Amino acid sequence: MQLRTLEGLALLLTGLSTSEATPFRPGASDLLVPPPPPPPGPVPGREDSHPPPQPREEAKTPVAHVANGTYLGLWNEKYDQDFFLGVPYAKPPVGDLRFAAPEPLDEAFEEPRPATEYGWMCIGYGSDTSALGNPVSEDCLTLNIVRPAGYKAGDDLPVGVWVHGGSYVNGGSRDPRYNLSYIVDQSVEIRKPMIAVSINYRLSYWGFLFSEEMQQEGAGNVAFKDQRLALQWISDNIAAFGGSPDKVTIWGESAGARSLGMQLIAYDGQHNGLFRGAVLQSGSPVAVFKGAAEWQPYFDALSAKTGCGDVGDRLGCLRQLPWQTLNDVFNNTNPLGVASPIFTAVIDGDFMTDQGANLLKQGKFAKVALLTGNNFDEGTAYGRQGINTDAEFQAWLSSLGLNTQQISDIEAIYPDNPLLGIPAFLIGRPPTVPYGAQFKRAAAFAGDYQQHAGRRLLAESYAAAGLPVFSYLWNVHVNGLPIVFGATHFQEVAFVFNNVNGDGYAINPFATKPESFVELADLMSKMWAAFIHSGSPELNKCKVWPQYTLEKPNNIVFDVNRTALHYVEKDDYREEGISYLLNNIFV
Ligand SMILES: *[C@@H]1O[C@H](CO)[C@@H](O)[C@H](O)[C@H]1NC(C)=O
Ligand SMILES: *[C@@H]1O[C@H](CO)[C@@H](O)[C@H](O)[C@H]1NC(C)=O
Ligand SMILES: *[C@@H]1O[C@H](CO)[C@@H](O)[C@H](O)[C@H]1NC(C)=O
Ligand SMILES: *[C@@H]1O[C@H](CO)[C@@H](O)[C@H](O)[C@H]1NC(C)=O
Fold first, then answer.
1. In Å, how far are 275, 278, 284, 462, 511 from 248, measured between CA atoms?
2. Rg for the chain (alpha carbons), in Å?
3. How many CB atoms within 10 Å of residue 518?
């Protein structure tokens, strides 16, 4: 099975199908990836991770003078672009800064520093990380900058900041599927040039652990605070690279989009001008948030397990442990046997003050332009496989935290009728093994619960505030996936990145497919670049993507089987189920 073809499928294969972000459990499928290199050892220093650049034509080496030093980048001949890779945006989150809010850099440096190689990925668990050979370290808070060559400090280019997904447990900005060269190239082609930036942030428990003592210290939502600090660094420094701090658009997919949803509602929507637009592909801030009380049992068990249970300052003790000790627990080599809440925002009274849906309904969100959307069949990546009976369906809903009343309501709204399920185009029931007789039912519920309900509330909330909203649906069956997954989660990414060669995919999603696939990638990547450049995805005067308003809540639907590659449709599908979820579960 080709893990690299589908984040969602990887989730399915590894049992990560029911929750927003359950810790990954390595499965047999991991054996398909090359063996990991020797572990990086105790927190490699930055000096080691950035060997000096290879000798090259002096004049072509891009140089950027930030406030406290100089970075030497890398010129890419093929795309005529300047790269600055692996640039740190925070102090390494190690020692006293482990499980703590990140701190800004505060040192000047004399010698110019090379910025020619991607930095370490944050320690994570799952195929997005292992497929790249686990190049991980705690010291991972870096970002990458890609700009068309020929621009310089003061040029004020718009900036798109990519935040990767991976269920909050794996992934990183160095993943070749997130190669920024192609979309930057597209931006130049449409004469709306942009700079693209991609960032890392802490993952798994390294970024999501929480407890009463962490709350006391302001150490909640640490992964999201990493992202925030990266945005602050960009605001403070991007001018030195030719970008404009006033023209930043945040842009992410899956857990990356969920993260950015959190940034929209963080601090009750006060975003301090860190961004002026947001692109959220398959992710929103709508999820069920817990707090310190629900996290405490896990924190207590972790402390006890690692010898930090009986000390006065348990958090201080956890911070001093060798990273491998914690890694063994988090990676399940030395299992704790106590479940934590699933990874998402926590209500810490600081970064996050309430449930995401409530903040949206109260208008407590960043007032910026929004582009957001979902794939038709997201649910096939989230619905549990192997459900054959009503009792099994009920048990699954219960495991997601639904109560008895909610379960019986959901059973009625999402009946076991394959004519109604997801994927809708699939007639009848898919094979019982491995999918389960009720797979289409599970997928219909899971897609709305995990994705579609949040998108609709987000789009409505932004439209109600009079902000420009562009909403899409995406319906394409890519190469390399079983047809039963339909237009599933993650698959639009290769199109938005215009990655038509399939860099980083085990099977190229475009191979064997008609030219319309390449044309759609061309169209979408240009629309995204246009939105990042100027807040609208329109490519010419003839408008094709209507704004989403309360009077006319329309989605553009991307579909390679339509001559125009798109059509417009009212956003009223599965109204009953989505309303139920928004009014009874996400409150
Ligand atoms: C620059 O260096 C000074 C001291 O050397 C420090 O106070 C300041 O925080 C630094 N600024 C940045 C952006 O690193
Ligand atoms: C994107 O991929 C191309 C082709 O492999 C490569 O030349 C380029 O360096 C990559 N761009 C970035 C930003 O990594
Ligand atoms: C986690 O465990 C898997 C499977 O044993 C292994 O391949 C991977 O390298 C481990 N990850 C880390 C960061 O230690
Ligand atoms: C588009 O058409 C192809 C060829 O007929 C078909 O295999 C595919 O399922 C269609 N896609 C969608 C989303 O219906």
1. 5, 9, 19, 18, 34
2. 23
3. 15
Q: CA-to-CA distance for 549 and 570, rounded, in angstroms? A: 11
Q: Is the CB of 425 under 6 A from ligand 4?
A: yes
Q: Which atom of ligand 4 is nearest to the CA of 486?
A: 13
Tell me the DSSP string of 469-532.
EEEEEE----TTS-GGG-S-TTTTHHHHTT-TT-TT-SS-TTTT--HHHHHHHHHHHHHHHHHH
Using DSSP, state whether 159 is helix, strand or coil.
strand
- Closest ligand (CA of 134): 3
Give the lowest-confidence range in 37-51, 221-235, 424-438, 468-482.
37-51
CA of 509 to the centre of ligand 3 (A): 27
68 lines ligand 1 (CB under 6 A): yes
Ligand showing the shortest atom-to-Cα distance for residue 105: 1
Confidence of residue 143 (pLDDT cuts 50, 70, 90): very high
Q: What is the residue whose two structure tokens read 């009380």?
A: 293
Which band of pLDDT confidence, cut at 50, 70 and 90, is reported for residue 418?
confident
Q: Whose CA is nearest to atom 5 of ligand 4?
A: 561
Q: In this predicted structure, what is the pLDDT of residue 521?
A: 98
User: Which tokens hold the place of 430?
Assistant: 């898919």
Cβ–ligand 4 distance for 514 under 6 Å, the answer: no
Q: How far apart are CA 74 and CA 141, in angstroms?
A: 20
Q: Which residue has the tokens 């009077």?
A: 551
Residue nearest atom 3 of ligand 2, based on CA coordinates: 181
Beta bridge partners, 374, equal: 473
Judge if the beta carbon of residue 501 lies within 6 A of ligand 2: no
Output DSSP code: residue 456: H
Pocket probe for ligand 3: among 3, 125, 169, the residue whose CB has the most ligand atoms within 8 Å is 125
Whether the per-residue pLDDT at 341 is higher than 80: the answer is: yes
What pLDDT shows up at residue 52?
45
- Please determine, for residue 41, whether its predicted confidence score (pLDDT) is greater than 70: no
For a ligand 4 pocket test, name from 561, 562, 563, 569 the mutation site with the most ligand atoms within 8 angstroms of its C-beta. Answer: 561
Nearest CA to ligand 1 atom 8: 106
* Residue whose CA is at the smallest distance from ligand 2 atom 9: 76
For ligand 2, say whether the CB of 78 is within 6 Å of any of its atoms.
yes
- Name the region of 193 (left: φ>0; alpha: ψ -120 to 50; beta: rest): beta
Enzyme catalytic residues? 254, 378, 489
146 lines ligand 2 (CB under 6 A): yes
Q: What is the pLDDT of residue 59?
A: 65
pTM confidence score = 0.92
Q: Which two tokens stand for residue 242?
A: 């030719």
Tokens of 491: 């698959």
Q: Distance (Å, rounded) from C-alpha 308 to C-alpha 322? A: 12
Sequence-separated (6 or more) residues with CB below 8 Å from residue 111: none
Q: Is the CB of 123 under 6 A from ligand 3?
A: yes
Query: How far apart are the C-alpha atoms of 186 and 524, rounded to whole Å?
Result: 10
CA 136 to ligand 3: nearest atom: 13
pLDDT bucket at 57, cuts 50 / 70 / 90: low
Query: What are the two backbone dihedrals, phi and then psi, of residue 569, each rounded to the nearest 5 degrees?
Result: -145, 145
Residue 105 has pLDDT above 60, yes or no: yes
From the CB of 125, is ligand 3 less than 6 Å away?
yes
Dihedral sign of CA atoms 503, 504, 510, 511 in order:
positive
